[in-house]
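Researcher: Structure prediction, please.
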Amino acid sequence: MDVLLHDCSPPIPKELGQRVGQVLGVYKNSAAESVYVTDNGLLVLNRGQFDWIPFDEIESAKVLGQDKWTADHIMVTTKNSTTHIVPIRHGHGKTRDVWEFWRFLDRSYKGVQSIKSPTTDRIASVSENSATYNTTEKRQIDSEDENPHGQT
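Model: Predicted structure follows.
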């Protein structure tokens, strides 16, 4: 079954239907260009074509433009090195929408990755071991400071 995002949009292709998840909001650049924010990623509609960018596949996101005053899109690179352009065209000067959208996107994909990462437990374990090692090392150094020549 095709899912309509709103009255003016074409249906989401069936192969994307389940992966897209629930639509949470829409950033509308124009009638032919919108960015749908879902609970699983971004769905960019540009001239009737969809570009699906799942949060858990994003490697990086970078604002691009001539300068910060005219920036109007975000370049998203996925883990398989595919580049996607996400147009965010409204706002003026320092208050261009692209900056807030980029901050949202940066937090979203990094948050999803930290939840789904199989190495999260190992990193926490390494951090704990490092903290223990650093604490032990500091105590050893403090002891040497108190007794610099090893005298008992």
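Model: The longest strand covers residues 23-30.
Researcher: Thanks, that helps.
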